[in-house]
Design a protein that fits this description.
Keywords: DNA-binding, Transcription, Transcription regulation. InterPro entries: HTH_LacI, LacI/GalR-like_sensor, Lambda_DNA-bd_dom_sf, Peripla_BP_I. This is LacI family DNA-binding transcriptional regulator. This protein has 341 residues and is of the alpha/beta class. It folds into three domains: 12-55, lambda repressor-like DNA-binding domains (434 Repressor (Amino-terminal Domain)), CATH 1.10.260; 69-170 and 305-331, 3-Layer(aba) Sandwich (Rossmann fold); 172-301, 3-Layer(aba) Sandwich (Rossmann fold). Helix content is 43%, strand content 16%. The protein has helices at 12-19, 23-30, 38-51, 57-62, 85-98, 113-127, 142-148, 172-185, 201-216, 233-246, 258-270, 304-320, and strands at residues 69-74, 104-109, 130-134, 153-156, 167-170, 191-195, 226-228, 252-255, 280-285, 298-301, 328-331, 334-336. Helix 1 crosses helix 3. It is elongated, with a radius of gyration of 26 Å. It starts with 11 loop residues before the first helix and ends in a 5-residue tail after the last strand.
Length: 341
């Protein structure tokens, strides 16, 4: 009987000895290769289970094998944001897309330079076949580090208009522009904007859409009519209070996320402003909460399920064809009109 000392890692040789076969046979069973008798395969599998042997994924990678796993990496530095619907809905969309494959999804948080370097080394060790990245800010080098390491990578969104890594994004400029155009068609003229963090390209794009719509209508949009938030409800409250203080005559507001719009609604209610009679409010995302605000929220729907499926499809294609060119996909948004505007 083959035994191992407590605290030691079982080896391929120990598996082979316990099963009564050679190292090569154990490798063929682990890699699910043909040419192994079923009785031998079962003996090796019993030995692996008894010893608790875990195959060396790095060695399998060097041999051209797959880890059959991809990492979904969240680079957000602020822990509060993990409670926002965007993260849970994105993880669900990606998970649903991968459920149709044999690929395992690993969720990883990377916030510091040390964590970036550690993750790249982990990924290069053959533990994952590709990486999905979300919440990447303008200065983040992680996508470039992964590309330099030769790891297939797909971004949700992009760091700038010059992004080269493969990405899938929503039409944030067009969505925000259509939302403000809707407010203008409804007779609103004193329209403010609550932006996301402006070191994120998504927030810059939604602000640009607001500015374009105002410019096309021949209306000024000075800086005092915009306040920067961070996509949380609390920042929406702070921004709306600041806008009311600066411009008591505000008659509409575009918030760059549904959660910030929810915060704006609460402040307007507390200030005695009726929505939409006195101030119309439009959000962005169309999360489930948008249907249950008081009043229900007019918002811009970004197709998160389609985004997740497209990210997974592009990543799997890059894993199969590493030489394929980087691809940039922008999906359409849709204005969903409810009672708040």
């Amino acid at each position: 009987m083959v035994k191992r000392r407590p605290g030691t890692t079982p080896t391929l040789e120990q598996v082979a000895a316990l099963a009564g076969v050679g190292r090569g046979t154990v490798s063929r069973v682990i890699n699910n290769e043909a040419g192994v008798r079923e009785s031998t395969r079962r003996a090796v599998q019993r030995a692996i289970a008894e010893l608790g042997y875990v195959p060396n994924l790095a060695a399998r990678s060097l041999a051209g094998r797959r880890a059959d796993a991809v990492a979904l990496v969240i680079t957000e530095r602020d822990w509060r944001l993990f409670g926002e619907p965007f993260f849970s809905e994105t993880v669900t969309a990606v998970g649903d897309a991968l459920a149709e494959t044999s690929v395992q999804l690993l969720l990883t948080l990377v916030r510091t330079d040390a964590e970036r370097q550690r993750f790249v080394e982990y990924a290069r060790g053959g533990r994952v076949d590709g990486v999905l990245l979300m919440s990447v800010r303008a200065e983040d080098r992680l996508p470039d580090m992964l590309a330099d390491a030769g790891l297939p990578t797909v971004l949700l969104g992009r760091r700038s208009g010059d992004e080269q890594i493969t990405y899938v994004d929503a039409d944030n400029v067009g969505g925000a522009r259509e939302a403000v155009s809707h407010l203008l068609r409804g007779g609103r003229r004193a329209i403010a904007a609550i932006t996301g963090p402006l070191d994120m390209y998504v927030a810059q794009c939604r602000l640009r859409g607001y500015q374009q719509a105002m410019e096309r209508a021949g209306l000024p949009a000075p800086a005092s009519w915009t306040v920067e938030g961070d996509f949380t409800e609390a920042s929406g409250r702070r921004a709306m209070a600041e806008l009311l203080d600066r411009h008591p005559d505000v008659d509409a507001v575009l918030a760059a996320s549904d959660t910030m719009a929810t915060g704006a609604l609460a402040v307007l209610r507390a200030a005695g402003r009726r929505v939409p009679d006195d101030v119309a409010v439009v959000g962005f995302d169309d999360f489930e909460l948008a249907r249950h605000t008081d009043p229900p929220l007019t918002t811009v729907r970004q197709p998160l399920e389609q985004i997740g499926r497209t990210m997974v499809r592009l990543l799997l294609e890059e894993m199969d064809q590493p030489e394929v060119a980087w691809r940039h996909v922008i999906l359409r948004t849709q204005l969903v009109v409810r009672e708040s505007a």
